[in-house]
Design a protein that fits this description.
Length: 760
């Protein structure tokens, strides 16, 4: 039996269950297990050509399975590939679907990790990928070159230790981020961890978050003036505040909405100075509903909530949200988490003891200076493990898990600056911890300094990447790292962030010195460039965004940084910030300072300029692809009807196995699901009970003759007069009727669908 034969049997349930599905049975929630099983079925349906690629793309994106680029120019975009996933389709014509290995994004809410989770992450990267894990600027993990057929088992293994990939991509609520120092920070108002976790759990898979036109990002910060959660650049951001009401101190959030970076960044706008903690979840739900209903759907370039807030104005947006909040039915889960806010509290493994000048290895002092933060809890510290370019190997992560068991109570978090932190380290253990990190190659100093450069994947794997952000970042880290603590203090505190294109995945707008990839033609030859972005502010939760000042050839960018740094040190006034310095000297002076660096010699004079960092080939834009950050917009109705079609398929499988009751019920559920999807187009808050769905469907679609009467009667008959006994002939016919009903649902939806980007 070949791999595909075994895989087909595993998916259809007609043979031995896949080993991981069998071994992990009962080790994850039933809901999550069913969801992964469903995705496995959808892969099989796509393989058979029974599911459109556009719909399947949105399906896999919502489960964290993302397309990637290859350095040979081949792309994972549904039409062109490096490897054929289903060889038997090779000669079946232009509709054949090709899938090369892609990327799996893994959500790590607020960055929190346990040792067991780190070990499983290390295992799956080793077994399904290239043994490298990448920490993203949203505290996620990504692993690349994952084969599509491996993703269900990969998901199961992660789910068994409480990790999900659900809605890590697609038009959905992305990973909820939070300050990695939450709970131990010396300046925070209160620990935002339990609130971030509660909102993540509440919105994950929530029905009101399934019909967005684009992604939705949320962040929490415990401080107003530090970088923390970077709330000003998020769709929804909460900063911890307290307020005295009737003599009692109450927790709440200064809530911001409508922020975002991308090509044109928007500062988030203040929604409310104080949202009580008990109103956080319902208000977020109301915001999601307004965004789903009124947000752009047709033009992806204007589909983020920042455009809706800008279009309506914050006052009108607030009015609509509060109006929506007032009509929401009460949900106990809104406040249930408040009964145990200590559920996410951490406990130290060892007593906190001061370092007191204990003997340490060479290099420890510099590492301690830049990588160690003294917690507000006396005797304890947070140690940052710097991950150059955000990368860590499976063996390193596995060893780090063991270290976390020895020195802390598995209190580890990822950071938006693509590093890892170990919290609650007893200060007296820091020299020993450092030695162990040295042995793993993880003891690089410079955390949170100018040398700790952040970069998106760029041309390495992203289909939108124009220039090599990782290649440039590696070069910058090397040059700045060679300074080894010799940099001026004002320069050392600056942040450099690099994006491979204008979409700001590297968060270049919020950096002191930012760059994003572009290109220029020089005598007909394309040369990699980076646009220089100056004046951003990382602190005060991304307090301001920088502006582009001009494009410079990629190979001259390190000199740009050198000149800016020298000029800042020489001309700075007192304690002037870099942002204020750039504002004071003005763009004219900056342009004059960098003017000669914009020049490119001819190819004959110096061909080096015509190559990107880390690449010996001549630069080209030929392999630039279409991005999959959120996929094409697929309406929730279409997705629900497609899900109903999948249920009919599963009913067929049950029928083949002689499970007549399961098959009949599955077919009925499929008809009810597609009917409900149509009804929700006109009656968004339709109750979920079959009686109400059928009644509303009859009134809105049968009586109005929008739906085929013949097909509609299949549902009415089955709902009103279910058979007391089932026969194979009867169930077989009913499954066929269910499929016809779903075809009728597709036809009906084509008649009633409101054009994308408009409101009914």
């Amino acid at each position: 039996m070949n791999l595909n034969d075994h895989y087909t049997e595993a998916v259809l349930g007609m043979g031995t269950a896949s080993s991981w599905k069998e071994r992990l049975a009962g080790q994850m929630s039933a809901e999550l297990a069913d969801e992964i099983d469903t995705f496995e079925t959808q892969i099989h349906l796509r393989k058979q050509g029974k599911m459109e690629e556009k719909l399947f793309a949105e399906t896999r994106l919502r489960r964290g399975v993302y397309g990637q680029r290859y350095d040979n120019g081949q792309r994972y975009d549904g039409t062109q590939t490096q490897q054929l996933l289903f060889p038997e389709h090779q000669t079946k014509g232009p509709d054949t679907v090709w899938h090369a290995p892609g990327m799996m994004r893994i959500k790590i809410p607020f960055g929190g990790l346990t040792a067991e989770q780190m070990e499983v992450l290390a295992d799956v990267a080793e077994e399904y990928s290239e043994e490298i894990l990448h920490v993203t600027t949203r505290q996620d993990f990504q692993i690349h070159f994952v084969h599509l057929e491996d993703t269900p088992d990969l998901m199961r293994r992660l789910a068994s230790v409480g990790i999900t990939t659900r809605e890590a991509c697609g038009n959905s609520v992305r990973n909820v981020t939070a300050c990695p120092l939450s709970g131990v920070c010396r300046t925070e108002t209160f620990d935002v961890t339990p609130y971030a976790q509660a909102l993540m759990r509440f919105l994950l898979g929530h029905p009101d978050c399934q019909d967005f036109g684009r992604k939705f990002k949320i962040a929490f910060s415990g401080c107003q003036h530090e970088a923390c959660g970077l709330t000003n650049m998020h769709d929804l951001g909460g900063i911890a505040v307290v307020k005295t009401i009737d003599g009692e101190e109450k927790r709440g959030f200064k809530l911001y909405v409508g922020g975002g970076l991308g090509a044109v960044p928007h500062q988030a706008q203040l929604f409310d100075e104080f949202v009580p903690a008990e109103e956080l979840l319902p208000l977020a739900q109301a915001i999601a509903r307004v965004f789903a209903r009124l947000g752009e759907k047709k033009n992806r370039n204007r589909a983020r909530i920042k455009f809706l807030v800008a279009k309506l104005g914050i006052e009108e947006f607030r009015r609509l949200v509060l109006e929506e909040r007032a009509i929401l039915p009460e949900d106990p889960s809104w406040t249930a988490f408040l009964d145990d806010l200590h559920a996410t509290d951490e406990q130290p493994l060892k007593p906190g003891q001061a370092l007191n000048g204990a003997a340490a290895s060479e290099g420890f002092a510099e590492w301690h200076r830049t990588n160690v933060y003294a917690q507000r809890q006396e005797g304890y510290a947070v140690a940052t493990v710097v991950l150059p370019l955000g990368d860590i190997t499976s063996s390193q992560l596995r060893a780090l898990a063991a270290i976390s068991r020895r020195y802390v109570r598995e209190t580890v978090r990822t950071t938006v600056e693509q590093n890892l932190v170990l919290r609650w380290v007893s200060e007296t253990d820091l020299p020993h911890l450092y030695d162990e990190l040295v042995s793993l190659g993880l003891a690089e100093s410079g955390a949170g300094t100018i040398a700790d450069v952040t970069a998106c994947p760029g041309t390495d794997t992203c289909k939108l990447g124009i220039a090599s952000s990782r290649g440039l970042a590696a070069e910058m880290r090397k040059r700045l790292g060679e300074e080894n603590g010799q940099l001026n203090e004002a320069i050392e505190a600056l942040r450099i962030k690099i994006s491979g294109c204008f979409n700001s995945c590297g968060q270049h707008h919020a950096a002191d010195i930012g760059f994003y990839g572009n290109s220029r033609k020089i005598n007909g030859i394309t040369v990699p460039h980076f646009q220089v972005v100056l004046g951003g502010q990382w602190r005060e939760n991304a307090g301001s965004f920088g502006l582009a000042t001009g494009a410079v050839p990629s190979k001259n960018i390190p000199e740009v940084v050198t000149r800016l740094a020298k000029h800042f040190v020489a001309e700075r006034s007192d304690e002037e910030t870099f942002k204020d310095f750039i504002s004071r000297i003005g763009k004219r002076e900056v342009k004059a300072m960098l003017e000669d660096l914009t020049q490119v010699p001819s190819h004959e004079e110096n061909s080096w300029y015509y190559q990107d960092w880390g690449d010996t080939r001549e630069f080209t834009m030929d392999d630039l692809g279409k991005g999959e950050c959120a996929g094409e917009v697929v309406s929730i109705t279409t997705m629900e009807i497609a899900a109903a079609e999948r249920e009919v398929f599963e009913a067929q499988v049950a029928f083949d196995e002689g499970q007549l009751e399961t098959a009949w019920q599955g077919a009925l559920n499929a008809m009810l699901r597609s009917a409900r999807a149509l009804v929700k187009e006109q009656f968004y808050d339709v109750p979920e009970t079959p009686e109400v769905v059928v009644a509303e469907f009859r009134t809105r679609f049968y009586d109005s003759e929008l739906f085929s009467p013949k097909f509609a009667n299949y549902l009415f008959a089955a709902h009103q007069n279910p058979p007391s006994e089932l026969t194979k002939v009867q169930v077989h016919r009913f499954i066929e009727e269910a499929q016809l009903f779903i075809e009728g649902a597709y036809t009906c939806y084509d008649k009633i669908a409101v054009p994308a980007g408009t409101t009914a």
